[in-house]
Here is the input.
Amino acid sequence: MRAFTYERPNDLDGALQGIAKPGAKFLAGGTNLLDLMKVEVEAPQHLVDVSRLPLSNIADEPGGGLRIGATVTNSDLAGDRKVRERYPLLSQALLNGASGQLRNQATTAGNLLQRTRCFYFYDTSMPCNKRVPGSGCAALRGFNRIHAVLGASDACIAVHPSDMAVAMAALDAEVEVRSAKGTRRLKLADLYRLPGNTPHQETTLAPGELITAVILPVPPAGRQIYRKVRDRASYAFALVSVAALIGIENGKVKAARIALGGVAPKPWRALEAEKLMIGNAASPDLYGAAGEATINGAHGHGHNDFKIPLAARTVARALGDAAAQNKG
Amino acid sequence: MDNDRLTRRGVLGTGVALTALHGTAFGQTAIPQTAPPATPPPSDVPPMDVGLRVNGADHALKLDPRTTLLDALRDHLGLTGTKKGCDHGQCGACTVLIDGVRRNSCLNLAVSCDKREITTIEGLGTEQAMHPMQAAFLEHDGFQCGYCTPGQICSAVGMLKEIKRGLPSAVTEDLKAQAMQVAEHEIRERMSGNICRCAAYPNIVAAILQAAGKVPA
Here is the structure.
């Protein structure tokens, strides 16, 4: 690990001052940042520890949504009574990620901003455009079984590893961001960039900006589900995951939300597939068609070709399972 | 550092790479490796004052900010019960309780734990007065080599508290239920962050069930 200086400011203003120092980074749970520092993929010169700032509340929003503080741990969020009752797919997504110990440590904002688990990003002896812009992508012709089939580029085929962010994408979450300039809100969908030729630029956050909260709007009426396909039953990243919501009225689909994990450089919202479903008779055929629409334009890189049909089938299965769930 | 020295890690790494190349198309990028540098780069950052409260005792330490809680416990306080397995939060051998909550000590900076209440395996019980979880692991042979055991036991103690306060898991059938069950499938899921390479899992599960009062001792 490279040397760094450390501070733990008492308030938000102190944190926003601290981050102005050269090479500074925020530290919250540290489950990803500290890990990357150990292999020197990350080498901040200064750490601003925000883990004890008063950002760990979960509170009702006026109008019915939910406001989740940036440092709420994954465990506390998954176990929150309001989340379990109103946003069960978010609880499920969180509980399907990482391990008990990691969920007790990892924070909401840190989870959103975690880096890819692409092997070549972690291996500093290999080319990686995300780690060293312009050095090339070793995954393109390497071991790319875990890599992206949607939204990738010739410069980078890494996937975003979060489960939580997939659920939040399906729920139309917004992100509240603070900086020395003030507060702004953006849609979670607008937080992430696709890699294009600049895979090292992963988000639209400006230097010095700190995520302070995630806001969930009232979800559409319907049944929610999170389905994750992985190499072992617990404690593994998704090969494909699906966050789905389906609202059915008089046999017809009134609301549909579909987001995928494990297949793209960001939580992947399948808007076309959602549109295709609205107003049509809820049926296995419709769920299958939605699955097929999800993989429009997908392409594999050899080892990960299997993810394309797997994604289509997991979407169909998730929608069917959600529709079959008991109401309530 | 002597670069010519043949290391165990190097030998193993070469073996993996050769095996991988046998089974793959010509010209493919070699299997990636992840290894931290053998010695930490030098630092001119002065040590920081850190107050660690471990097993009820206060310790005033001066630490390089890079020091993890795990290394502080083992190398600075001599509490070697907590084990270093992967040092990347993947194996759970370093699990301790921080303010009563199970966490990986390898993924916490010691400076971040300033004034927190740390409980390690040494603080759970003694040979004369074992914690019920320790006694249950002994009775059920919940280990073979024993390296993962302190982490397993600390994790199991933290895990039962999570069940008690009603935290669901990925295998909980009814997410909205108030009370959570202590059951084998729940324990297996909730303990997945603790790897046992001897695969003593059946006995670990039995020990935890006993310590939770689910089966007669």
